[in-house]
Predict the 3D structure of the following.
Amino acid sequence: MQFNNLRFFLLSLTVFLSFSSFGQGQINLLNGKQVKADSIKADGDKFVYYNPAKQKEKTIKKDDVFSINYPDGKEDFIFIPDTANGDINLNQMKFVIKGEQDARKYYHAPTATIEGIIIGAGSGFFAYYGIIVPALNSVGVGLHQPHDFKRHVSDTLLTNNQFYAYGYRSIARKKKVNNSLIGGYISLTASLFTLGFFNKQIDHFFYSLHH
């Protein structure tokens, strides 16, 4: 038990330090994404920064930003929780975002993709009426929590933190829905083209029999 407590403390420290980006600026978003950035400056309700990867200046809304790390190691928190009205505090929010980051990195939802492909392929038999089927399937997929997420994390001890689990599940659910939609509609499109091709071949075959 004492070992687990020490391990969780060290993990918590790692979570807090994971937002730091020495040598280069970094914008930490509320959805768990991290954007490498240089020359970050405030401009009204947004931040203007230079993206070194894309080599151009870009903007991002302040409402989407959790914190900003500067090259000297300083971190400015843009997200200011209103704990008096029920908002979670900064430390709890860091666990939420860590969960989102791990879900983006480790959770791939292959089952949702395969299910979407199968559903989409079968929907092709309903012709254009089948267009709605993959969307309905994705709604059903989104209703179910990703219960197996503990196998796809940076450290299983983090899953005992309710804020980490909340952040992880929110992104994992979105991945499941997106994978289901993409797999479903790609498969549906392929199915419609395939069935259309065979229908033309059959029509051509019977036409040639009668002429």
